[in-house]
Amino acid sequence: MNVAKFNYRELFKQKTAEDFLLISALLVQIVALAIWGTFEELVLFQMVSLHMTFLYYILSRNNSFIQGRFGSLFLIDAWRGFWIIPVKNFRFRKNILKVQLPDQHLKMKITPALVLISIGTFWVAIGVVLFAVNQLQAVSENFKLLTTNFTDLWGVFFSKIHWMDSIIDFMVYLLFSLPLGAYIYGLIFGPLIRKAGKKANYQAIQAKINRNRLLPLFSSYIVIGSLCFIYTLFLVISFLDLQSLFQVHTISPQNASHTAVSGFWQLVRVALLNFATLAVCYFFSKVAVWNKKAGKILLTILFGYTLAFALLASWKLFGIYIALYGITPLRLISGWFITVLIFWTMLTIIRIHKLFLAIRYGIFYIIITITILPYLFAMYLN
User: Where are the transmembrane segments (predicted)?
Assistant: First the structure.
């Protein structure tokens, strides 16, 4: 099947918010890399962000999102874009090498394969001609005098090339480019060639998820209720300890670092534990907890504590550590992560009581802020 036959204009006519956001973020990230390159402490974030943004953009433009947009299955979308779609469509890469042979009624069409064959034929012809000339020069002196300048010219040309290094580099690039090219071709053009006829079906995937929803409702109540009880007990017992955190003037310089660092990541992990609990309830509970009145109350309390822990961690970071010791790369990354955590927690609390696309907006926030992060590095740390 020829990719050129597709009506791209008709296919891409409708653009979504994901399309605009992802292509904008991709361009802004590329500009940051072009200006400053990679930052040592941020290189992993930059590379992962760039590749994931590109991956999601291709999925969005090809209309390959399971839900048609960012949603609760965004991690499954990422796995499909990273592995399933490109590997499944790996074989389509060979289409670009197909040459349409001419006959009496058809003119030859210029294709990439034809160009490669022409270039290869040119160099083969030069090689065999040089070999023949070299052999015939030993037979005839007149022929040797006539062709000496020609062979000397090519001899100088080839002597300037470091053959072994060039061949090794070429073979390395060739070995990596073939599977990488097939991977990218399968990711970008595979859904187009299939005409989205085998697009992942949201209902089918939900049916698979429903088969795993075996936990009764009371299991969710027990787990969430237990966490709420522990958090309440923690706040009651630790009230005096927590109160001292807000009296920065009473914290000595010697103890400020210890006060700011101790418990910071523990609070973050507890907040992430609550999100993990919610995800488990979504994927494995028979009944959606947030659809029940008691469930809404428990989840509101749970994520109220999550917000409190995230704000407490942010105070440790911004109010004590950065305020007293200044900003560093690690503190800037930690600050970004805390803002993401607070934003997602607030979206979750609102989503418990009102139906809207909370996960979509949460992912938008991550894309926007992680795109801005290199610019903050350059502004404050470079």
Answer: 20-36, 42-59, 110-133, 170-193, 214-240, 260-285, 297-324, 330-350, 362-381
226 vs 283: CA distance, rounded Å = 20
pTM of the model as a whole: 0.76
Average pLDDT over residues 294-307: 95
What's the token pair of residue 213? 């929803």
pLDDT at 164 (0 to 100): 56
Going from N- to C-terminal start, the domains of the chain cover 65-100+109-211, 212-381
User: Of 68, 95, 65, nearest to 79 (Cα)?
Assistant: 65
Q: How far apart are CA 166 and CA 155, in angstroms?
A: 17
pLDDT in tens, 115-147: 667 776 776 777 777 677 677 667 667 667 767
Cα 329 to Cα 291, 338, 373: the distances in Å are 42, 14, 10
Name the β-bridge partners of 215.
285
